[in-house]
Amino acid sequence: MKHIVMYSGGIGSWAAAKRVIQAHGKENVILLFTDTLIEDEGLYRFLDETSAEMGVELVRIADGRTPWEVYRDERFLGNSRLAPCSHELKQKPARKWIEEHFAPDECVLYLGIDWTESHRIAAPTKNWLPYTVKFPMAEEPYVTKDEMLTELERLGIRRPRLYEMGFVHNNCGGFCCRAGQGHFANLLKQLPDRFAQCEANEEAIRQYLGKDVTILKKTRKGVTGPYSLRELREDIERKNPVDMQDIGGCGCFVNYDESGEASE
Ligand code: SF4
């Protein structure tokens, strides 16, 4: 029996891998990383150092496109409700790799969803059928993300720098189409060049589609409508209020679109 951990680069997936190894030994554990090609450099260091410390095989797979290329191909800019990038770049390649290598009765899959996210368990459980999915961090003993990061550093491995910069996840280099105003405000502050690239990419998709579509939304005078990254940046530069509480809900491999389709 193989134990395959969906190894996103997030601290939850690391903590899940540690528990899987403790329960089953490292020999039959595989860390499966699906690369979106816009990951932060700190993520690759984290993957290398943690897989070496655990002594476990790290398998890297990639669709070959970035999220921005998926939006262009799908003629749809990802947003908080629908994220075709996660379906195309995470779920589909992972499913394909697993089906090519293991039958449902030859492996168990693991996701890093923790006990604060238990409401997210039902969807991937159903989506991965007939494969079995388990969620070690949703089980006791319950630990917080801070405690996981502290444990990582106790082993002499620095936390991924996106966490140090105040991001809630370590995916897509600090970008996420599911993220909110506060998340992108932090991206502008911490990694302005990367924000500028996202702003330019969003504008390019808008031009390509010929539509007033944006990742973010803003409510003006009771009406909610598109809010581009350029407008967000200009509001911040002019010191206009932005919704810093609107962080958004990124969750690689665990979010499901409103359509019911799995997004990652
Ligand atoms: S982290 Fe966000 S942008 Fe990246 S693949 Fe997942 S949903 Fe898409």
What features would you highlight for this structure?
two-stranded antiparallel ribbon, Rossmann fold, binds iron/sulfur cluster, 7 strands, 2 domains, 13% strand, 264 residues, globular, disordered C terminus, alpha/beta
What is the CA-based Rg, rounded? Answer: 19 Å
CATH topology of the largest domain: Rossmann fold
CATH homologous superfamily caption of the largest domain:
HUPs
Reported CATH architecture of the largest domain: 3-Layer(aba) Sandwich
Domain unit count: 2
Q: What structural category arises from helix and sheet content?
A: alpha/beta
The string of secondary-structure elements, in order, is EHEHEHHEHEHHHHEEH
Task: Please give the largest β-sheet.
Answer: 5 strands, parallel
Number of helices: 10
Bound molecules: iron/sulfur cluster
- Uncertain spans: 252-264
Query: What general outline do the C-alpha atoms trace?
Result: globular
Strand order of the largest sheet: 3-2-1-4-5
Would you state the CATH class of the largest domain?
Alpha Beta
Helix content: 40-55%
Distance between the termini: 24 Å
Mean pLDDT: 92
Task: Tell me how many strands there are.
Answer: 7
- Share in β-strands: 5-15%
